[in-house]
Specification:
4-stranded antiparallel β-sheet, mainly beta, 126 residues
């Protein structure tokens, strides 16, 4: 059974960068679509980036487009989220998630995921 573990969160100043990692065990990620959602206190979970399992197509929310990059390292069975020019509104718990499908609605459909990691906290503050 696929299990996901996120690492890399922390405290960063506005304008700074972080790299989040999503390491998988129990199954290869090769055929899974993997994405990142985030949740700020008092807000709904928001999809920010996704990479398709076979085509490697990527998609981003408008709020992070141009600043975040999602990538996959197949030998390491890991997906990364590189976050640059971080803003205070990027603060939240970041979750890695996996699904067997991919489509234009993926980032708006957290209920359609097959498995989730426990999350890693990102705080952007002075």
């Amino acid at each position: 059974q696929l299990q996901l573990v996120e690492t890399g969160g922390g405290l960063v100043h506005p304008g700074g960068s972080l790299r989040l990692s999503c390491a998988a065990s129990g199954s290869t990620l090769d055929y899974w679509t993997i994405g990142w959602f985030r949740q700020a206190p008092g807000k709904e979970r928001e999809g920010v980036a996704v990479i398709a399992g076979s085509s490697e197509s990527t998609s981003y929310s408008d709020s992070v487009k141009g600043r975040f990059t999602i990538s996959r390292d197949r030998p390491m069975n890991t997906v990364y989220l590189d976050m640059n020019n971080l803003k205070p509104e990027d603060t939240g718990v970041y979750y890695c998630t996996a699904a067997r499908w991919y489509g234009t609605s993926w980032l708006r459909n957290p209920d359609g995921m097959d498995t989730w990691g426990k999350g890693t906290l990102v705080t952007v503050s002075d």
